[in-house]
Every structure is written in C-alpha cells, then in structure tokens.
Amino acid sequence: SIVTYQINADGTLKALNWESSRGVTPRGFTIYKDLLIVANQGSDDMYVFKVNANTGALTYTGNSYKIDGAVSLYVAEY
Fold first, then answer.
1. Which InterPro entries does the entry link to (predicted)?
2. Structural contact between residues 40 and 51, judged by C-beta atoms closer than 8 angstroms
3. Fewest CB within 10 angstroms: 10, 29, 35, 73, which?
4. Cα dihedral across residues 64, 19, 70, 34: positive or negative
C-alpha cells in the first residue's frame, strides 16, 4: 500500500489515505511532475497514479506495465 500523510504543525504525521499499489511487494516509486509511478517487485509490474496537488490523493490513471525485476525507477526525459 501507499500512504498519504499530512505534516502537522508540531511535526507529527497524520495518515490521510491508503492506496493499493495494485501489485505485489511495492519496492520503489518516483514522483514525476503530477504522477506517482510505483514499481512492484513481487509482481514484476509498475502502475501510474495521478497526484492531486491540493490533497495528495492518488488516482490510478489506468496505465500499467509489465517489467522484469521491478525494483527502482528513474524517469529519463528525451
């Protein structure tokens, strides 16, 4: 699962939302612009979520990809 937290004024965290990684054993993730991309090591796949800039809530975009050895992610711009 992926958890969205709020940082309180005193520095403590408050959990706001839980979102399934949609795979098995989420191992790595990266944020690119307004997207969160999650690599699931156990199911060899990655899923793309849109990040709400105001609330931090995640929405699955419908985009997923099978990749062998999904462990970490890096976005390369061309």
1. Cycloisomerase_2, Lactonase_7-beta_prop, WD40/YVTN_repeat-like_dom_sf
2. no
3. 10
4. positive
Percentages of the chain per state (helix, strand, coil), in multiples of 5? 0, 55, 45
Cα 28 to Cα 65: distance, rounded to the nearest angstrom = 14
Could you please report the per-residue DSSP string of 16-35? Answer: EEEE--SSSSEEEEEEETTE
pTM for this entry: 0.86
Per-residue pLDDT tens for 47-62?
A: 999 999 998 899 999 9
Do residues 17 and 5 lie in contact, with contact meaning Cβ atoms separated by under 8 Å?
no
